[in-house]
């Protein structure tokens, strides 16, 4: 019986893959399985993975998957899920790495708590800088209802911390169809995933377990390139809103989804990474996306945000600002920067789209 499947997509990450693979070896056990998915890399990544497969077989079980065509991170993760046989599942990206012994500690944590999934903190790495990023959930080591952790709408919550690799998941979630991602999404693929998980799983816990090192500033990431694939965040959050609108608690949950969508649009509108033509498309598509939202909830979201973002979005929609709005108005909580887990590569999986706002 395989205890844990670790799913690791790779795409053109020859500079980073060796460190990632060394960290897997430092987490190996005979009852662990490493599912290595090469998303049609064009550099030396396939050769690195072939050598690593032989090396890792001494200490763990290994499955290597090779895509004939690049499909993106969401589809690469799904390929890994389809081959996973573990009692538990976790993820890692092909340019990130794990602390020695992190995976055994993950397994011990979820077995001790006995819940559907566990969320963990992580270390954000930019060059030589290291920053602790914590799950935005106050209670640690306590099993709770995932639905209750979606709200409140005006604060960053666990659904805004969408990193799939920051946690461990029981196989029953895979068997119930809750762990697969939306095929083809190039960015924000974790957003519909984490919302579905919190709406439909039965139990979860947040723990202060550090062990994932998340590499930022990778040159080939979508945040650096700024082409049309970045705009998939709109498709991703359209899905969040559509699915949440069908939920039995839509009246309570939909305001959170709408407000988060507005915050994401505002964030992308301020970015200078987009090519001029893509920036124009972003504005057109963002305006159309906001107009598709329920009018009352959209107005509430704009009223609840700080004046800078509210004015930016109202201009996009060509709506006048309401009188009396000032920055930092009561109840207008700041959103957490970069909780979105938009881990997609320029042409697929590996590096990261790392500029999101809850």
Summary keywords:
single chain, 358 residues, alpha/beta, four-stranded mixed sheet, 38% helix, disordered C terminus
Describe the structure.
This protein is α/β, with parallel strands linked by helices and 358 residues long. Helix content is 38%, strand content 15%. The chain is built from 12 helices and 11 strands. Strands 3-2-1-4-9-6-10 form a 7-stranded mixed sheet, sandwiched between helices. It has a 4-stranded mixed sheet with strand order 5-11-7-8. Strand 7 and strand 8 form a beta hairpin. The longest helix has 20 residues.
List the helices and strands and how they pair.
Layout: E1 4-10, H1 17-25, E2 32-38, H2 45-56, E3 61-66, H3 73-83, E4 88-91, E5 97-98, H4 102-113, E6 117-120, E7 122-126, E8 129-133, E9 167-170, H5 171-175, H6 190-200, E10 204-207, E11 212-216, H7 222-225, H8 232-245, H9 250-269, H10 276-292, H11 295-304, H12 307-317
Parallel strand pairs: 1-2, 1-4, 2-3, 6-10, 7-11
Antiparallel strand pairs: 4-9, 5-11, 6-9, 7-8
Give a short synopsis of this structure.
By secondary structure, the protein is of the alpha/beta class. It has helices at residues 17-25, 45-56, 73-83, 102-113, 171-175, 190-200, 222-225, 232-245, 250-269, 276-292, 295-304, 307-317; strands at residues 4-10, 32-38, 61-66, 88-91, 97-98, 117-120, 122-126, 129-133, 167-170, 204-207, 212-216. It is 38% helix and 15% strand.
